[in-house]
Write a structure and sequence with these properties.
Layout lengths: L12 H9 L3 E2 L3 E4 L4 E4 L4 E2 L7 E6 L13 E9 L11 E5 L4 E9 L10 E4 L4 E6 L13 E10 L5 H4 L7
Antiparallel strand pairs: 1-4, 2-3, 5-6, 6-11, 7-10, 8-11, 9-10
Length: 174
């Protein structure tokens, strides 16, 4: 008996994550024979879904760099963390971004890939201009993060107290 099968297209990364952790999706066959009261059970082979590794990307204003027109311009850092699909055995999840001491942090928004606010899913700290978003487990694990992307939007501005001498290493073409 040959059975061609595949993982359902409707299976979510969150549903598949425990199977990745446990070594695959198990399947077992049974042979009933004689008058049907005798049975044999096969081995339990497993099929492991492909894993997607976590990725983090940072841009400013949606680009690799941004040139300001005025020193008091507000600009936005975007820190996007895609968690991949193998999150069920994680014991800690933190997204951090060290903002230069010459910058003031004006506002921080944290959203998922659907632009839904997810700030309540963790704790946000900005001590010493180190933005740290520490996520909470749900039902004792981080499985809920599988397949999701959380983005921190960090609005910043050059401090009004920043001197020309302090800024000179960062000014392109003098």
């Amino acid at each position: 008996l040959y059975i061609d099968s595949q993982i359902k297209s409707s299976a979510t990364p969150e549903e598949l994550s425990p199977y990745i952790k446990d070594g695959g999706i198990p399947n077992q066959a049974t042979l009933a024979f004689g008058d049907g009261s005798e049975t044999l059970v096969s081995e339990q082979p497993r099929v492991t879904p492909p894993t997607e590794e976590p990725v983090i990307k940072k841009t400013v204003g949606g680009q690799a760099s941004k040139e300001l027109t005025n020193q008091d311009d507000v600009f936005t850092w975007e820190v996007a963390a895609s968690f991949g699909n193998d999150t069920s055995d994680w014991t800690e999840v933190k997204i951090t971004d060290q903002i230069n001491d010459l910058l003031d942090i004006k506002d921080i928004r944290i959203v998922d890939e659907n632009d839904t606010d997810v700030t309540s899913k963790g704790t946000l700290d900005t001590a010493n201009n180190l933005v740290t978003f520490t996520l909470n487990q749900e039902n004792g694990s981080f499985t809920y993060l599988a397949g999701h992307t959380y983005t921190l939007y960090i609005d910043s501005q050059i401090k009004s107290s920043a001197t020309p001498e302090e800024l000179s290493p960062y000014i392109k073409d003098g």
